[in-house]
Fold this protein.
Amino acid sequence: MRPDWDEYFIDMMNTVATRATCDRGKSGCIIVRDKRIISTGYVGSPSGLPHCDEVGHLMKQVIDDDGTTRQHCMRTIHAEQNAICQAARHGISLEGSTLYCKMEPCRVCAMLIISCGIKTVVAKSMYHAAEETREMFKLAGVEMRVVDQAIESYDNQ
């Protein structure tokens, strides 16, 4: 059976994620316009800096508004950020494009997505802290579709 466009690009996003150098989220991202891939990214350190799979994680504690303590690896940048940076580096406008990602974007990624003119986000699954993202997208007119309503979980969250 032939996949629809969302299934097709999510499968490709999963392949991009295999390049991730931080094993916690193993996320990938594809940005598409007119059913053509214009940029990709995966979780990894900025070019020239050590990667988690080489030197280990750089874990920091983050305390949510409700008092929940979470662990975040600060060595890497998110797949969405890497895909946006790759487009910028190569002079590719993202205006009106669609972004495919593993889970709903975090707040920082959401601000970048809005600022560069991406109009649609398709996430494979939900993210445990995406309330602000959902609200910002709603205010900015960015459509977000989540394929699987399960919340993504990973080690040492």
About this structure: The chain has a mean pLDDT of 92. The helical segments are 5-17, 52-55, 79-89, 107-115, 131-140. Strands lie at 28-33, 36-42, 59-63, 69-73, 98-103, 120-126, 143-151. The radius of gyration is 15 Å.
